[in-house]
Amino acid sequence: MNTEIYNAVRAAVRELVTLERPDTRRVRLLVVGCSTSEIAGGKIGKASVPELGGDVASAVLDEARALGVDAAFQCCEHLNRALAVERATAEKYGLDEVCAVPWPKAGGSCASAAYRLMKEPVLVESIQADAGLDIGCTLIGMHLKSVAIPIRLSMKSIGEAALSAALTRPKLIGGERAHYTL
Length: 182
Prior knowledge:
- It is a single chain.
- This protein is an alpha+beta fold and 182 residues long.
- Strands 1, 2, 3, 4, 5, 6, 7, 8 and 9 form a nine-stranded mixed sheet that branches.
- Strand 8 and strand 9 form a beta hairpin.
- The mean pLDDT is 94.
């Protein structure tokens, strides 16, 4: 196990999920996208490292469980960016299950590792998560709620991969800034 990567991922999850928010909503569902190729210093999709996928997946699952958060792991484009989640999570959020099993070359090293680490894994087509971590520019935005807020975490990378994070908020549909007439 790469303890440096494992510890960095746990810290990133913890920092994002426990950030002070102006509202009282808490993160309930976290989406994670990960390129182990990028973590290792390679080009996304070209140098997959299954062991790093296991380290990242273990870290996310361990920290999410400790914080009481559900986790979803985005697969690569070969599985249409489906997500690996626990069956209980799919049922809790009413998610549409799809039929496939992620592997490092068709799903990604992280999502396939998470799938194998879960108690009762399933793939779902899409989600609308409260927060997201993107390790290596995997483009998780399609799996966030409508209004995503970029978050600058204290760490900027995991290994050699750029780290991006986002929280979401409800849509603003009125209030003192709204205009109702020309």
